[in-house]
Amino acid sequence: MSQAELLKNKGNEALQANNLTEAINLYSEAIKLDSKNHVLYSNRSAAYAKAERYYEALADAEKTVQLKPNWAKGYSRKGTILAFLHRHEEAAEAYREGLKYEPDNVQMREGLRDAEKQITSEGETIKNPFTDPNIFDKLRNHPKTRELMNDPSYVQLIRELQHDPTESSKMQDPRIVPTLSALLGIDLEEVAEDDMRRKEELEREKRKRDEERHKKEEEEEQRRQQEQMTPEQREAALAKEQGNDAYKRKDFDAAIRHYERAFELDQTNISLLTNKAAAYFERNEYDRCIEECQRAIELGRELRADYAQVAK
Fold first, then answer.
1. Is the pTM of the predicted complex or chain greater than 0.90?
2. DSSP secondary structure of the chain
3. pLDDT score of 69
4. Is the pLDDT at 28 greater than 70, yes or no?
């Protein structure tokens, strides 16, 4: 059994135990090892959905059907998440696509019926608010539109929308938002602000997760590098870190001493010379800076180092 399969099984166990964060992490590790496995994305999508992280769940569901377009379960997963997001027309379309591959799937048939009911229900409840016979009374009595009713151009705008509410240019008028708020009994400005706040919150959460993931990956890479180091290289890495700390404090004399000590221990690390050159530059000792840069270039050529590292 492959390592990815083992991680998937552990993820399934965590999901069944409702340990959602653990399940998501295990599936993510498995995906790193087998990024073409549609089942891994499907399972992580289920974990995200159970954690009410629906946008991430949807992204994984879409990846599932992209990898395995003839797998009915992927469309079932996608349809279920779209339904949670109240995107019923898209949910219905996903179920229809899945039923092409598995026509007798009971769950998808029920999902399709529910989505179509929601679409019908929404269609029945959405009426033209400008056809209300009491529209002008409502607008005169509502605090958001009371003053607007004193403007003849506003009254004319409402009359034109009564005749043709699909006129897109008129619907762009900024007075339409308070008008619809008054007619529908919903503060659309507040709803828009709530949507914006929610969007910003989701973006912050995503940035935080990305930062945590990057930090974890960097720590793991550092751990792997340290495991491969000799005792001298570990001591050199510690001295380099002390040099970096001193550099940040603008104690360039101490930084240079630490970098020199590190290079004595590890004379294959070009970055120690470039860091030392940077410290000399900050002390305005440009000749010493150039000298260290030249040493770094020569060492890089000698070691056949990566071009980008030598160029630095």
1. no
2. --HHHHHHHHHHHHHHTT-HHHHHHHHHHHHHH-TT-HHHHHHHHHHHHHTT-HHHHHHHHHHHHHH-TT-HHHHHHHHHHHHHTT-HHHHHHHHHHHHHH-TT-HHHHHHHHHHHHHHHHHHHH---GGG-TTHHHHHHHSTTTTTGGG-HHHHHHHHHHHH-TT-HHHHTSTTHHHHHHHHHT--HHHHHHHHHHHHHHHHHHHHHHHHHHHHHHHHHHHHHHHHH--HHHHHHHHHHHHHHHHHHTT-HHHHHHHHHHHHHH-TT-HHHHHHHHHHHHHTT-HHHHHHHHHHHHHHHHHHT--HHHHH-
3. 93
4. yes
